[in-house]
Specification:
48% of the residues lie in helices and 7% in strands. It has a four-stranded mixed β-sheet with strand order 1-4-2-3.
Length: 301
């Protein structure tokens, strides 16, 4: 039956939870964020309790309810035998890419890439590391509000053979929030994609070499991880957008094990929230450098 699960009832059920798998606190906190942001909707998924009153399914949703301090609607099924436990959560979980496909169709690979870009932009806006998880509802809501992210990802696909499109799409989307940055983005991608006529000190050559060297050195030719990709790409973009030379890109952890993620020139500062994406103005130094570079390259109108 449909049931309004309160934090108090959720905690009561969690207190009688002897046989469940280990709780993932990050997953529960991600669900809690959706509940607080009113992204959690009733979809018929049940909370399951066995015939001894023990919780056998739903601990992450219940813990999220406790974390969020708000109720949520669910089905509550009681009196189940323990024999049903191996059959629970046996199907493949739907990803953000799956949700986008069901909403609008399109190519599955494209949807997966756009979702990856959206996740990194969301993490940037929240001040999180680029490789942090984001929930499917949060990604879908973001893309509904900012559908042009798909265009930035498509632009980044021109350099697919060199850079990873997901992080590149995120940086391009952020870098074009300030007015008149689109032409700089196009020339950045074109240079990275072809490598034609690039000289030492050109940030586009530096990012090409950084990715090629890392991919060559990686075990089994695996692609660089999203966190490294975003930081390296952002550094190259920032140098290009402000007219600075950049000969080499080295991305390493700080002494305390953390990573320094730069603000993206043309976008808002990290951690300012999603609304900041609509409030970007390019700073005078970046504007002056951009105008000089465009004049040299014949990009001015």
């Amino acid at each position: 039956m449909r049931y309004t699960m309160t934090p108090e009832k959720a905690q009561e059920l969690l207190n009688n939870n002897p046989k469940n798998r280990n709780l993932s606190k990050p997953l529960a906190r991600k669900y809690a964020s959706d509940m607080k942001d009113v992204l959690w909707v009733y979809n018929g998924d049940p909370i399951r309790v066995n015939d001894r009153g023990e919780l056998i399914d739903g601990q992450h949703r219940l813990q999220a309810c406790v974390y969020a301090g708000v109720p949520f609607e669910c089905e509550l099924i009681e009196g189940l035998p323990d024999s049903v436990m191996p059959t629970i959560d046996a199907g493949r979980r739907r990803s953000a890419s799956d949700a986008l496909h069901m909403m609008s169709g399109g190519n599955a690979s494209h949807n997966a890439g756009v979702a990856a870009s959206a996740r990194q932009v969301l993490n940037y806006c929240c001040g999180f590391a680029p490789n942090m998880a984001q929930s499917t509802p949060a990604i879908v809501r973001f893309l509904t509000r900012f559908p042009t992210l798909s265009d930035a990802y498509k632009m980044g696909m021109k350099a697919k053979g060199v850079l990873v499109p997901g992080p590149l799409g995120a940086v391009l989307f952020l870098g074009q929030r300030a007015p008149t940055m689109e032409r700089r983005a196009i020339s950045f991608v074109d240079g990275v994609a072809t490598g034609a006529d690039l000289k030492m000190g050109d940030p586009r050559l530096a990012i090409r070499e950084a990715f090629i060297n890392r991919r060559t050195a990686a075990v089994s030719m695996r692609l660089p991880e999203p966190l490294w990709c975003f930081i390296a790409t952002a550094r190259a973009w920032n140098a290009w957008a402000t007219g600075q030379e950049l000969e080499r890109i080295n991305v390493r952890k700080n002494g305390d094990g953390t990573w320094t993620v730069p603000d993206v020139i043309g976008g808002p500062p990290r951690g300012q929230g999603v609304d900041s994406l609509d409030q970007v103005k390019i700073n005078p130094v970046a504007r002056r450098a951009r105008m000089e570079l465009e004049a040299d390259a014949g990009l001015t109108a």
